[in-house]
Write a structure and sequence with these properties.
Layout: H1 2-13, H2 17-41, E1 49-50, E2 55-60, H3 68-82, E3 86-91, H4 95-107, E4 111-116, H5 118-128, E5 134-139, H6 145-150, H7 156-165, E6 167-176, E7 179-181, E8 184-188, H8 189-199, H9 207-216, E9 223-229, E10 233-245, E11 267-273, H10 277-283, E12 298-303, E13 305-310, E14 315-318, E15 321-325, E16 328-341
Parallel strand pairs: 2-3, 2-4, 4-5, 5-16
Antiparallel strand pairs: 1-6, 6-7, 6-16, 8-10, 8-14, 9-10, 9-13, 10-11, 11-12, 13-16, 14-15
Helix pairs in contact: 1-9, 3-7, 4-5, 8-9
Amino acid sequence: MLVSRLRAAAHALFPPRGEEKKSKVEAKRHAGLSLPSQVAGDAGAPCGIVCAVRRLALIVNPAAGGGRPARALAQVQAALRGLGLEQRFEYTSSLEHARELALAAVGAGEVAVAFGGDGLIGAVAGALKHSEGVMGVLPGGRGNDLCRVLGIPSKPVAACSVLASGVERPLDLGEAGRRTFAGIASCGFDSLVNRIANESTVVHGSPVYAYALLRALPSWKAAGFEVTLDGSMTRRFTGYSVAAANSKQFGGGMRLAPAASLTDGLLDVVIIEDMPKLRFLRLAPTVFAGRHVGYRGVEVIRGREVRIESAQPFTLYADGEAIAELPVTVRVLPAAVRVIMPR
């Protein structure tokens, strides 16, 4: 019975093409407006610095997004040349290699441009944290959630204009152990969903996360968590997941922490308590609009640091990558990296 109802609910997670296009337009509209105005309006936030970008080092993950960056590279290079930008590129063989390339680029006086998914962006940003280095971003992954939040165009060629005329602004990063991330770190049910999504060969692109949710839910059993905020307030509960959000969204447009800011020096910690699976399934589509935070069983608390523990051995995922094992402490790194974004 549960499996049949899950299939029936797939319509909400996989909308017809017309509805999907509408939701993408709406997401793009919100993404394009949210962060630039938010940065400009944050009290005490530094003013944007107009970027006179002339020398770029493209750090390309050829496997991201089903090979999207490799296919688009020639067009991207042509667009950059047309904008009068000097550029070169190197393919990455791993996230560690990407970090090395980013450091080498900055050492040569170049802007390190992450051309891949959110995992690559997090790796490059982590390499440049607390330095004078500047990072650029070209969308090339499955979800491209940071690009959506920053208002960077979803097409790589269109996004080249941001590298030419954008401004530099300092953004926060998240850190778990020795790994940094730009978006949202989560565990619990999300650990299982991320693993299935990363292993999937059936569904590609943003819908892979909805597919993974439907695959993971029937066998899921609620877990016990202990969450300690800023070393003082401790919250114990049984439920689905805990997420430490530096940015608003993940998973290809899911606005898990709709009030999170990349410039406030805080993490939005999202707790999803236990509930019947069918209720959880009905709740899932509301995440794309951020309406889930108004429902019973969902709680958001804020702090600079959160300690997450569980009796079960969950992996913490961020930006689509496995970054740590529980127990883990996640903290925010305020104004840690300079990123080129639309004016």
